[in-house]
Amino acid sequence: MSRGNGQRGTKAEKRRRVQKVRHMILSGFERGAIILAAQQLGWNVSDRTVDGYMATARRGIEQSSADEQSQELALAKMRLVDLYAKEMAAKDYRGALPVLREYNELCGLHAPKRVEITLDSVDAEIARLEAEVAAETASRGSASEA
Question: Could you tell me which residues come within 8 angstroms of residue 32 by beta carbon, excluding any fewer than 6 positions away?
Answer without folding.
Answer: 146
